[in-house]
Design brief:
- This protein is an alpha+beta fold and about 180 residues long.
- It contains 7 helices and 4 strands, in the order ααβαβααβαβα.
- It has a single domain, classed as NADH Oxidase (3-Layer(aba) Sandwich), CATH 3.40.109.
- The chain has a 4-stranded antiparallel beta sheet.
- α3 packs antiparallel against α6.
Length: about 180
Amino acid sequence: MSDFLDLAARRQSCRSFSGIRVEREKLTKCVEAARLAPSGCNGQPWSFVVVDDPQKVAEVAKCAQPLNINAFTDKAGAFIIVLEEHAVLMPMLRKMLDSQTFAKGDIGGAVISICLEAADLGVGSCIIGLYDRETLCNILGLPQEQRFGALIALGYAADDAIRPKTRKGLSEIVKYV
């Protein structure tokens, strides 16, 4: 295993894909990493749709381009859509909490697990925040009421350069007590 902080530093949002398809074995490893992510009460409020068929990849890419942004997705090699599913909480907690209390955080953990595994495999990723959910449901055969956690574009970077990260310093974000 490589040093985790090195992996975190190397992972970046890829916005320049080469157009090369991502091998299904690598996509499966990315989903396996997400499957192993922690979740509140082991609720696992997720499922995954892996899009690797070239025609479907092109259709999903168009859904990721509302307002004429994210044109780089045209060259993505695959997409993974993280769906929010019903979490099953322990009986005692079910009486006090909504089943989806932890879902957003849990899905966030699954999403970063996908992205970090992809980086470890030499595959770029970009979490897409704006997309046409209705059309995406139609393309994927999902019910319109399906809740989405994330749309992740994956592919091999056209350029392997690691951009410097601009982040707040530790002194700005940490308080020890």
